[in-house]
Specification:
Length: 387
């Protein structure tokens, strides 16, 4: 089955959906609210499941070329610098770290220039058994399928489910930065009480870092955000201070962490939600972007193997909602264990990590992460993308 699809939202999930649908023969238009794409989120890591999803889109090798390997999940330290866990001496790192703009650019370059329209804000959506009609600030369009990939504050979700709960604040905030430095840095995560500092190399000479810490309320901002980071982790081990010194103030972003309560469905008739619009999650499993790319591949495969759009969307919902909602729940719990841990819980967690032999951790980690990382994407039929 092929047809015409409109994707609302030109982020990573929306672009991945457009790439996936075009690979299976669909005509696609992407409508993005912002007039020009800018840096959002600084950096991110992709685990093996997400890399397989990118490979299913035909972008596996290109994704490796614009990313860096990182052992961040296997290299954990205390603020003093003491190691709680060390990366294996052999083997390839399981994660690839990207500058977010590099991954976004890779997906956009996989599409013809006229597929993505910017500066378009969707204002209405109606559907019947045969088509979906959307209205927006530039026109009115009809399609066989509409995909809402417009983020945690999704207009599509609000139009479809006006009474569904909105995003919820998880009691912590984060600063994200990009440091330009010639020093060689390995990925790592430093665990303080009520806060963490994450390091990922994302390109030669460029390092992404993130500080997460507890917060009583969202929306609190400062004149000098970088100075606020320094104050909160003053005295922490090298190379943290070096990275902060090498970070231009304009490369620091301050965000509040929210997720989305479970929705009863990701689909309605000929409309599907994807990515953060459906299952926004905290960053504590590193799966936000990866799950949206998985969504895109599964959705395209379902459309290619079912006879009607509603049948395909029913199959998509059945596959994606349990996995993504479980992942979001696990991410929320993992974040809470670090951000909201009391002094005793923090000490016990650090002790347990330090006393676990590296060889044992190397055996346990694949079992713990297996349900998430071992996911295998469906094969997308190689349809001819329309010109």
């Amino acid at each position: 089955m092929t047809g015409h699809a409109i994707v609302i939202g030109g982020g990573i999930g929306g672009l991945a959906a457009a790439v996936a649908l075009r690979r299976t023969g669909w005509q696609v238009n992407v409508l993005e609210r912002v007039s020009a794409f800018a840096e959002v989120g600084a950096g991110l890591s992709q685990s093996p499941n997400a890399m397989r999803a990118l490979a299913a889109l035909g972008l596996g090798e290109q994704a490796r070329q614009v990313s860096m390997p990182t052992w961040a999940t296997h290299t954990m330290r205390l603020p003093s610098g003491r190691h709680l866990m060390r990366a294996p001496a052999q083997g390839d790192p399981p994660l690839r770290a990207f500058r977010r703009s590099a991954l976004h650019r890779l997906l956009r370059q996989a599409l013809p220039e006229d597929v993505v329209r910017t500066g378009i804000e969707v204002t209405g959506l109606t559907q019947d058994a045969e088509k979906v009609t959307i209205t927006h600030t530039a026109d009115r369009q009809e399609a066989d399928l509409v995909i809402g990939a417009d983020g945690i504050h999704s207009v599509t979700r609000r139009l479809l489910w006006p009474h569904a709960p909105g995003p919820r604040f998880l009691g912590y905030t984060a600063w994200l930065g990009l440091a330009d430095t010639p020093i060689a840095v390995s990925g790592s995560m430093t665990m303080g009480r009520g806060r963490y500092f994450l390091i990922h190399p994302v390109a030669p000479g460029q390092v992404y870092w993130a500080l997460g810490t507890a917060a009583d309320q969202p929306g609190v901002r400062f004149d000098d955000e970088l100075e606020q980071v320094r104050r909160r982790i003053d005295g922490w081990h090298d190379p943290i201070a070096t990275l902060l010194k090498a970070t231009p103030p304009e490369q620091v972003r301050h965000i509040d962490i929210h997720d989305l309560p479970d929705l009863p469905s990701f689909t309605s008739g000929r409309v599907a939600l994807l990515g953060d619009a459906a299952h926004a999650m905290s960053p504590d499993r590193g799966q936000g972007a990866g799950q949206s790319i998985e969504d895109a591949v599964v959705l395209a495969a379902a459309l290619a193997t079912h006879g009607t759009v509603p049948e395909a969307l029913t199959a998509y919902d059945a596959q994606r909602r349990p996995r993504t909602q479980t992942t979001a729940r696990n991410a929320r719990q993992a974040g809470s264990q670090v951000i909201h841990a009391g002094p005793v819980a923090h000490i016990l967690t650090a002790l347990a990590l330090r006393l676990t032999p590296s060889a044992l951790w190397e055996r346990l980690a694949p079992r713990a992460l297996g349900p998430l990382w071992d996911w295998v994407p469906p094969t997308l039929p190689d349809g001819a993308a329309p010109k």
